[in-house]
Amino acid sequence: MDKIVIEGGKRLSGTIPVSGAKNAALTLLPCALLTDEPLTLRNLPRLADIDGFQHLMNQFGISTAIAGSRPEDFGRVMTLQATRITSSVAPYDLVRKMRASILVLGPMLARMGEATVSLPGGCAIGNRPIDLHLKVLEALGAQIEMAAGYVRAIAPDGGLPGGRFSFPVVSVGATENALMAAVLCTGTSTLHNAAREPEIVDLCNLLVAMGAQIEGIGTSDLTIHGVPRLHGATYMVMPDRIEAGSYACAAAITGGEVTLKGARIEDMEATVQALRDAGVTVEPRSDGLYVAAEGKLRPVTLSTAPFPGFATDMQAQLMALLCKAEGSSVLTETIFENRYMHVPELNRMGARIETKGRTAIVHGVDVLHGAEVMATDLRASMSLVIAGLAAQGETRVHRLYHLDRGYERLEEKLALLGAQIERIGGD
Ligand code: UD1
């Protein structure tokens, strides 16, 4: 299997583009199910998860075409058209590999009146149930049945009526599923305590471009007036705030200076605040975000939280950075249990991190050492790359399929900034 080999200690400097957001793309793609007209998405990142989702859409009989890239295109351009949907079943094999497949449940139900999706099963960063996805669809009028590891949602004759739902816990995915179902309901729906991550705003903006009527976009109270049909659209996927934050940590740990072209500060204020608290300079520029670090890093205390709080998807990367701070940082993970699997690996590189339940205490060290490491999820893997960039000697990161799920051209972008990094084949 491929691995990434990093010779640490090189200061990063220069400019790199930020790719389209993976998590936005994964909720924009299923919107193609909502109309028989073409949906063209621009700025899609080239990632294994996007290929996986394309495969899933093909399974439903949806045509997908990727345009040849032109210099004026950002990222990849894909046109999807669900003229006729030939299957409403998302099988176990595809859902198991890609948890975001659950996001077809809402739009498929709204368009076809029924949808069957395999239960996603366990996941490396915790239990990750889908009860809220099902409860909110029930509140919109669906009947839910479970059998043989599959969940089947059925709309009454005449379509889903719509309804009210108050989320007991903020859920990004359940809010997305609810929105994609509610836009085609016969009546009005209201969602309280909805997620308001920038990716949800991106989803709402696409749905509105397709003819949906949504009030309260960007807030936790959404009102959706159902419409009988949606039309096609051309839409540009938002920049990836997690990728941008990850490269900001990478630059900072090397005492570097980089510009992240296309990054939007308003999408990542909590990350920017954490970096500034650590002593890193972060400034918005007309073309993106400028990040620079020199001298000692300071420790930081924070908890992960739903947006606008500090994103759980940035916790591992910030932790890697704080390994080199002068003093002890305290990070608390409130969204997912079992999201500290990078800790033993970072400790093998010379970090001093203790965990107690959901809290991690990161005692800063002067030196990290290169090592053979592997992680069991995407962001954890990136934290090891970040540590490797600042470590003395060589770091080999194994299990690259995690990184390939979420970071487009990782080694190319880091090499562009001056990192000594390469991907090598073999076991
Ligand atoms: C999305 C992101 C993921 C990010 C997470 C939190 C995508 C493809 N993935 O995941 O990268 O880390 O948001 O920002 O966009 N929960 C329930 N029942 C449910 C659903 C969720 O209890 O039915 C709980 C989860 O276990 C978790 C919390 O709610 O504790 C938040 O999860 P959620 O926001 O749903 O995460 P995802 O949408 O799966």
What topology emerges from the helices and strands here?
Blueprint: E1 3-7, E2 13-17, H1 22-28, E3 39-44, H2 48-59, E4 63-66, E5 76-81, E6 89-90, H3 92-97, H4 105-112, E7 114-118, H5 131-139, E8 143-147, E9 150-154, E10 164-166, H6 172-182, E11 188-192, H7 198-209, E12 213-215, E13 222-225, E14 233-236, H8 241-253, E15 257-261, H9 269-277, E16 281-285, E17 288-292, E18 301-303, H10 315-322, E19 328-332, H11 343-348, E20 352-356, E21 359-363, E22 372-374, H12 378-390, E23 394-398, H13 401-406, H14 410-416, E24 420-424
Parallel strand pairs: 2-15, 3-14, 6-7, 10-11, 18-19, 22-23
Antiparallel strand pairs: 1-23, 1-24, 3-5, 4-5, 7-9, 8-9, 11-13, 12-13, 15-17, 16-17, 19-21, 20-21
Helix pairs in contact: 1-7, 4-6, 5-6, 6-7, 8-10, 8-12, 10-12
The structure holds uridine-diphosphate-N-acetylglucosamine.
Q: Architecture of the largest domain in CATH?
A: Alpha-beta prism
**Morphology call:** globular
The total count of helices amounts to 14
Total tally of structural domains: 2
CATH class of the largest domain: Alpha Beta
Radius of gyration: 22 Å
Query: Which ligands does the model contain, each kind named once?
Result: uridine-diphosphate-N-acetylglucosamine
| Topology, number of strands | 24
Q: Any idea of the CATH topology of the largest domain?
A: UDP-n-acetylglucosamine1-carboxyvinyl-transferase, Chain
Mean pLDDT equals 95
**In the CATH hierarchy, what is the superfamily of the largest domain?**
Enolpyruvate transferase domain
* Gap between N and C termini: 5 Å
